[in-house]
User: What shape does this take?
Amino acid sequence: MGMLTDFLMSTGFVGIAWQNVVMILFGCLFIYLAINKGFEPLLLLPIGFGLIVGNIPIPESMSGGEEGMFFVNIYQGVKQGIYPPLIFLGVGAMTDFTPMLSNPKLVLLGAAAQFGIFTTLIGALFIGFTPQQAGAIGIIGGADGPTAIFLSSMLAPELLGSIAIAAYSYMSLVPVIQPPIMRLLTSKEERLIRMEVSRQVSKKEKIIFPIIGFLICTLIAPGSMVLIGCLFFGNILKESMVTERLANTARNAMIDILTILLGFSIGANTLAVNFLTPQSIGIFVMGATAFALATASGVLFAKFLNLFSKKKINPLVGAAGVSAVPNSARVVNKVGLEADPTNYLLMHAMAPNVAGVVGSAIAAGVLLSVLGH
Amino acid sequence: MGMLTDFLMSTGFVGIAWQNVVMILFGCLFIYLAINKGFEPLLLLPIGFGLIVGNIPIPESMSGGEEGMFFVNIYQGVKQGIYPPLIFLGVGAMTDFTPMLSNPKLVLLGAAAQFGIFTTLIGALFIGFTPQQAGAIGIIGGADGPTAIFLSSMLAPELLGSIAIAAYSYMSLVPVIQPPIMRLLTSKEERLIRMEVSRQVSKKEKIIFPIIGFLICTLIAPGSMVLIGCLFFGNILKESMVTERLANTARNAMIDILTILLGFSIGANTLAVNFLTPQSIGIFVMGATAFALATASGVLFAKFLNLFSKKKINPLVGAAGVSAVPNSARVVNKVGLEADPTNYLLMHAMAPNVAGVVGSAIAAGVLLSVLGH
Amino acid sequence: MGMLTDFLMSTGFVGIAWQNVVMILFGCLFIYLAINKGFEPLLLLPIGFGLIVGNIPIPESMSGGEEGMFFVNIYQGVKQGIYPPLIFLGVGAMTDFTPMLSNPKLVLLGAAAQFGIFTTLIGALFIGFTPQQAGAIGIIGGADGPTAIFLSSMLAPELLGSIAIAAYSYMSLVPVIQPPIMRLLTSKEERLIRMEVSRQVSKKEKIIFPIIGFLICTLIAPGSMVLIGCLFFGNILKESMVTERLANTARNAMIDILTILLGFSIGANTLAVNFLTPQSIGIFVMGATAFALATASGVLFAKFLNLFSKKKINPLVGAAGVSAVPNSARVVNKVGLEADPTNYLLMHAMAPNVAGVVGSAIAAGVLLSVLGH
Amino acid sequence: MNFGWHNVVAGHGIGLMITGMLIVFCGLLLISGIIVVLGSLNGKSAKPKAAAAAATAADREPTREELIAVAGLVVHLESERSLGEWTQLTIPRQNRVGSIWASAGKMRSLSEGGSHA
Amino acid sequence: MNFGWHNVVAGHGIGLMITGMLIVFCGLLLISGIIVVLGSLNGKSAKPKAAAAAATAADREPTREELIAVAGLVVHLESERSLGEWTQLTIPRQNRVGSIWASAGKMRSLSEGGSHA
Amino acid sequence: MNFGWHNVVAGHGIGLMITGMLIVFCGLLLISGIIVVLGSLNGKSAKPKAAAAAATAADREPTREELIAVAGLVVHLESERSLGEWTQLTIPRQNRVGSIWASAGKMRSLSEGGSHA
Ligand code: NA
Ligand code: NA
Ligand code: NA
Assistant: This one.
């Protein structure tokens, strides 16, 4: 039975390396976190299972096999930057900009929080990443999955896996990372500040905003055209009320299908050689700093604004500037309630929260046009 | 800060031209028409927003940027004629051929209305378009979005944007364009004609029809194979009752996703250089004539048929031959009710209405096989 | 009117051959079977209509026409093995492995039934098929649509149409093929055997199983990575309960869209030259044998197991090893009730039934790695 | 663009028009002919009672029983859903063909899985 | 990887940071400015009563009538569904805008087909 | 096609069959082994009461209260829908996990958006 031995030689057991095992364990870890700890399951479960699938040792004899092509094929949508913008389109179709429209002042907090992106970029440069890699790592501080994936697929595809995992992990760790920083940087009095109820927003405003918003963002940062374009296109589909069925499909069937393909293919294409590197450690460390710095700068900028305005802002709200919609807004609400059980900051926090999405898309645009190719 | 100035040089403000501004204004116009005037919002809103996105000036330094590739990528589905037939499949899964099956005689009115296509073709040739372009322009008279887009993507891609916009605009202007022509060409007596109630149609007929219908159309006009094939395939999915779930997805999730991609990518790939041309004016003028002629020939042919048959047809019904499902059928019903508030022509008008869809697909097939490369 | 005659020369009537007619009749036959006899309508209806569409004679003058490209384009997803694994993903999202988890012993029956695959392979080799073709034909015995299509697209694309049609036809003929064999190979006493009620399965088991199951299968048969990976990925999306919306879309919108594209494009790309061949007859004969042998080996292996275990298995259950989920399980239940109207075998039969799906995916993996390129 | 009739001649405009309209008319004429034939074949089997029933069904108010039935169906689907697949095979699909619930129900039944797998 | 500040200098880190934050702030500053303008324009047309109505609608319990209405709607859709397209054009879409039923209804109405075709 | 056993020999038919069946059996044998292990591990944590509850839930008729509850839920979703996102964050998702309404509800809640963005 030469053929039998041949076959046995071609099983996965032959040529299995410790890297494969470690990667598979990582996959199991992310699945565990997704299911038992509720870490962004919609992304981390597919990525985790993808890691397991992609790191099964395939014997030489088959490495060129067409069947291995499947994951290469569905990964094209990531490589060529097709899935993330379309997912962003669906996100736009579920995002409600009303809180932002009713609190224009709070929009600036969403800008301040992007400070985390650029300080992290410098940190990444410092520890020896290339400018392109540093940009991709910095964007983790944007706390925006599609933006991070889109940018790193453009600037540093080799880091995509680690960056995607870091971004989504920290987005779900927001309730752990943010509160201590928020408490550290604010006084009890500040946490007690009540903000006036926000004004009504007319349907017309909601429809005009996506158009004007898009024009401003892309004229200032042409690199953000695709992401911002898709985000606001999805949003106008939703707000116009005349394309309800398109908005519905965009935020349900379409975004789900793309999320499955995105997560699964990213996982399956994240191999030990790219993931089990000192760089990955650097990425995770940098990512944590990015989130911390973003939170801090949001809070501090809110306090800074209070120096000049009579209507005080509750500085906690600044922490919501690191999008991670809607987790960080919920964290703000929670911490606010600790200080005063009757002071609900949620709707106020949603303003910087969605502004942060736009902010990091602009930042990604800047990085893309400066560092792109 | 050489880098800062560099970047400012790379914003959209630099190198913005009046063409960009005009195109963006056009985009806003179509969005306005879609939302406030209800002009085919499912298509004109995506196209309109796409126009805005696609005509933001991108500085030289980035014109080759990968991120610009996104719209090129999703446009492939239009260029290679993939989206329109699949949308047609979904249309088939929502179209009901019953009225046509119960009024075979009225089918001919759907043929007569295609006269608008070919007269417009001649007009387009006359004012100097190439035969291919003329064919693509003529098909606007078919009043059928996917057919028009499919044909022009094959014959005259450079005119695709203008033709798509013209087609959908006029389809929603049907209530404005048709009534005067209908009144002009019919006497009060004719508008009062009552038509006998149509016969029952058995489930079996509904299932057999798509198959036989497809064979006839494609044997006579092989060029219409793809469009007619998808239309009738979608319809049999619906009528067979055994593939309900496929029909459901085809007419909901699938058609919605494709409509988003189609409209958005067409808009984003319609640039000033192709759109702001005297040709576009020609296209819009020709398009209007096409609709007018189609309406007229439908009505007149109905009167012509009345010369020979004892069971008189209400000539208004002929106007529904210009598909534009179901707008023109509704217009017919409205004008009919003006003459006699108890004479409902809607179900009768649906017959030439759906027949018109088949008719223009056949016409497209002819043009494709004669003019295709 | 030279042009008119030109055109008439270009209609489908010219150059229509008897092969076209026969293929179209076959298309009608499959549509009839799908609608009136309920033969796997979700697949056979699209394939049938596709056969009609794809076998309309296209005149030379147009054979290179872009519009013919449509079916070539959507067929890419089959050729490159993209649709079947994604469909398998959706299948995973609707499959319930609970019966299998609660009856581990019955899993082996799912293995025994795969005997049909390899005996058929030998038969196919015997009558002169190439090893690759023989492998693709053998997999028909797996009674698993996506697996059969995936494997034949890899090993013998030229036979894909016939194999797909054979596989789905026999899957719906299971109620006709299996009972006689089951009755022939079992005694009345055996058919009366009652099996003990199966144990409860915890949520945790359901979540851990897809992961471990995948590792075992792919380490032993790396070639099954893609199919098994997608199957179990879909299943964990379902069982984890935290990605409900993804599982929902995977088993509804996504699988429906892919099924439409798969069936329609397979049909349209199955031409007379590949289908009207003695080989096809061979394929259908072999397919029938495959199903019969699979059923027999399942039943006999159950009897074999009974020789060693005190807890007797009802050998009828062995017949469910030929997946064809859930038809064969229902057949088992029916035949069981004939013997004893109070002996419900359905849930017991589901165990080998789903095990059979895994089993044939493994078998496909073996064939792929041994015979691939 | 240079206007003029010569363009039309050069582009065989008239020929195209005649050919085209001829084809379109042949096509739809044949179709309407076939429809007539089909109709006469199935003419006997036309079922007006169905139509009548339909009309009434559409017009009249839902009865108390129907309200119970509908809500009950929802409850059933809810419980079924939460129980998972143990109840899958108990769904009475046949008598819910063509209803929006049916599709919802089918989605979860293995039988659909089978049709795909 | 070789640590060190020289990497930052080489990568124009500081320049990038300043440029970037500048752009981001400009962008969002402009946006918030525009929002203020928009708000003042439509300021008059703010409708608090709608909000109030909404709030109440969200709070209070569904009345007996609503229960009937809802179940009735389901029944209506069921029957409509089983009847197929003969009743398509009778769906009162307008007054169900934005409801999940509406979309379900629209799917089956030709008007949507038209928007696509 | 030339019949004959030599084809089988040339194609290593027997070898393939033995190898294949061996692999398939190994695979499923291992799987059933693992299942046994898994089962014994979680054996203690088997919950028959859940099953019982399930069974009853499936069998018995929906009560009056449930009818109200269901219709009420529909009404709630309706109003929620028409109000848009102001009520988004009020959806009690937790206790509707795995229900068809839940998914409908989730779709509209920003939390899902977050999971994607
Ligand atoms: Na952000
Ligand atoms: Na038409
Ligand atoms: Na099988």
Notes: The first helix of chain D runs from residue 5 to 10. The two ends of chain D are 58 Å apart (CA to CA). Residues B 142-144, 322-323, 356-357, 359-360 surround sodium ion (ligand 2) (CB under 6 Å).
